[in-house]
Write a structure and sequence with these properties.
With 446 residues, the chain is of the alpha/beta class. It contains 18 helices and 8 strands. The relative contact order is 0.07. This is VWA domain containing CoxE-like protein.
Length: 446
């Protein structure tokens, strides 16, 4: 495949677009038809085959402009003269550094710098602090050493006899430095910055939710939304594959008995599968609120994969909170939920009573119940009888506890009492834990 196109696809993936192998092959075919000469036509053609959504179209357009645009340094000075020296290498660099009225010299310099940057491995840049290093490596690959040696020799003379030559060499060197740095900054924007963002996001995703700094919240929200989209897409693909069913060999042979056994018509077995149905029951008391925020954010970003979602919150009295989550911006909805529900003394037993009396019909054999809480109920009756009945009605009961397992059962914790009735019970500390749990919950419906 064309190395330029391969680099562009790599840049798209680094920026967050899911450019598949099949789509990359289509992009190569589009390139063969359009070519690099018509930039607008190429941008439109590649956008059609490589971008599958509005978000990816926006990513594609931004990366295309960066990747195929010629970098311009912020302070362009005129390299002053047509001076020539006797050194062919220095002459060549001076030619490149001339701006040229028709732009051809600029194009030649851009092409030479692109080759030098590739030779220097600039696409491996990951941090902005590496810009100076890669700019120097690019200049060395370009062959700046003879120019610098010539300049040093002229400066070493007690009374330089060629001040105009010194001035021209200095102007050419500075021009090349600015251009090389511009090339490296462009490649950092394409490859390094997305890699840095991905690294910082990975740090946030694996950090304990209860220790999240305020400055990390926006990054975390974006990461959770992206994780949810990928999770929804993965399970949607599984559903499409499974919809076809498994080959039924016996029925296929019967259906093709009149064709001498040649399987003209294929018959498939189809197993009835329940659509995902999730009921989330969340303790929103102060110690658990940060975990609840991201569980609900995750769940409501999974609208493509979960067709039936009910959400309940409690500290002591349980309330249905689906309406504010569906109608208000997420942060406003959470603020309202915490204000109306999160100020009471935690009482799990009363929460199960409220769920039983008002919303018991929300739970049936198709329902996965996800409980998020620490099981600490201030010594009140945990109502294990109602929780056992809930477990018998549901498909699965998954309990996520923000406390480490070593603390379960200590003090007023009823975690060990609830444990026998749960399909799974696990420590949930990070967004990665939430993703794994929801992946397993959706997997149960395949």
């Amino acid at each position: 495949m064309d190395s330029i196109l391969a680099g562009f696809v790599r840049a798209l993936r680094a920026a967050g677009a899911e450019a598949s192998t099949a789509e990359t092959i289509d992009a190569a075919r589009a390139l063969a038809l359009v070519g690099y000469g018509d930039r607008d036509g190429l941008k439109a053609a590649l956008g059609l085959v490589l971008a599958k959504s509005e978000d990816e179209k926006q990513i594609h357009d931004q990366v295309f402009d960066l990747y195929f645009g010629r970098p311009q340094p912020t302070a362009m000075e005129q390299a002053a003269t047509q001076l020539r020296t006797g050194d062919a290498a220095v002459d060549a660099l001076l030619d490149l550094a001339q701006p040229g009225a028709d732009g051809q010299a600029g194009d030649a310099l851009a092409a030479a710098l692109a080759r030098a940057a590739a030779s220097a491995g600039v696409d491996e840049i990951r941090f902005a602090t590496q810009t100076g290093y890669y700019a120097r490596q690019t200049l060395e690959a370009l062959g700046i050493a003879p120019l610098e040696a010539r300049l040093a020799a002229l400066r070493a003379e007690p009374q330089p006899q060629a001040p105009a030559e010194v001035q021209a060499l200095e102007a050419a060197r500075d021009q090349l430095r600015r251009q090389a740095r511009a090339v490296v900054q462009q490649r950092y924007a394409i490859f390094g910055k997305p890699a840095t963002e991905a690294f910082m996001t990975e740090v946030v995703v694996t950090r304990a939710l209860g220790r999240m700094a305020p400055a990390e919240m926006e990054r975390m929200k974006a990461a959770v939304a992206r994780m949810a989209r990928k999770l929804a897409a993965r399970h949607a693909r599984r559903q499409r594959v499974e919809r076809r069913g498994q080959l039924d060999l016996r029925r296929t042979m019967r259906a093709n008995a009149g064709h001498d056994g040649v399987p003209v018509t294929l018959a498939f077995k189809h197993r009835r599968r329940d659509k995902p149905r999730i009921v989330a029951v969340c303790d929103v008391s102060g110690s658990v609120a940060s975990h609840v925020r991201f569980l609900l954010l995750f769940l409501y970003a999974l609208h493509d994969a979960v067709g039936d979602l009910r959400s309940f919150a409690f500290s002591n009295r349980l309330q249905d909170v689906a309406e504010p989550l569906e109608k208000l911006p997420f942060d406003d909805a959470m603020a309202l939920i915490l204000k109306e529900v999160g100020n009471g003394s935690t009482d799990y037993g009363q929460a199960w009573v409220d769920l039983h009396d008002r919303h018991w019909d929300a739970i049936d054999r198709r329902t996965t119940v996800i409980v998020l809480g620490d099981g600490r109920s201030n010594g009140s009756n945990p109502r294990l009888d109602l929780f056992a009945e809930l477990a018998s009605r549901a498909k699965r009961v998954v309990w996520l506890c923000p406390e480490a397992e070593g603390r379960w059962g200590s003090g007023d914790s009823a975690m060990l009492q609830y444990r026998p009735y749960c399909t799974s019970m696990s420590h949930c500390a990070t967004a990665a834990d939430l993703e794994r749990t929801l992946d397993e919950a959706l997997e149960a419906y395949h």
